[in-house]
Amino acid sequence: EPEVTQTPSHQVTQMGQEVILRCVPISNHLYFYWYRQILGQKVEFLVSFYNNEISEKSEIFDDQFSVERPDGSNFTLKIRSTKLEDSAMYFCASSGDSRYTEAFFGQGTRLTVV
Amino acid sequence: RKEVEQDPGPFNVPEGATVAFNCTYSNSASQSFFWYRQDCRKEPKLLMSVYSSGNEDGRFTAQLNRASQYISLLIRDSKLSDSATYLCVVNMEAGNMLTFGGGTRLMVKP
What distance in Å separates the CA atoms of residue B18 and residue B25, rounded to the nearest whole number? Predict the structure, then answer.
């Protein structure tokens, strides 16, 4: 069964450092997303990406965040200068040919900023 | 006002019980609706989409009431493996982002 894969599964970084979280969405999907979940809180939308550009972003997705699809398979989230409050589980997701269809999530990257 | 609201629980039920979860959403123009389950420190996994006519998948039944902006999930014959957090998820009209409820925790006991 096709699945979304994310690497690394756990990333520890020092405050102020840059991190790149990587995702390989399901191959025939067209919509890609990043969500995050702070421990004990609800899953929050960060950004959606379609046709090689950001289609929507939340207030959380400020200038320190960026996304890229550098090739035909990878989808990355970069956090330029990490803060303690960026510590969370980051989930990548993808969905098919309509923005209203189900999204499938990767297993997540646990980011710990120290 | 919270956009997607759920009773956080926990719901503690014995094996074999029937349990129902409810969810309300604030945007009347919302387009699509889902139930996901999330195990501790894992990713949300799609359980089922929710259609206007209601739909069933094995022991799981989902209902949507657009007039009341209310979604429900019924689990029959609960199994130990059903223990998880159940997330009500709505795709609002404005875009393609999913809005998650806070989840309802279910614990099925032997």
Answer: 24
Specify whether the CB–CB gap between A89 and A108 falls below 8 A: yes
Kindly report, residue by residue over B29-74, the tens digit of the pLDDT: 888 999 999 999 999 999 999 988 889 999 999 999 999 999 999 9
- Give the β-pairing of A109-113 and B45-50: unpaired
Minimal CA–CA distance to B59: which of B46, B77, B81? B77
Q: How many residues does chain B have?
A: 110
**A1-5: average pLDDT:** 88
Task: Report A:27-66 residues touching B (Cβ under 8 A).
Answer: 31, 33, 35, 41-45, 48, 50, 55-56, 58
Q: What are the phi and psi torsion angles at A9 (to 5°)?
A: -80, -30
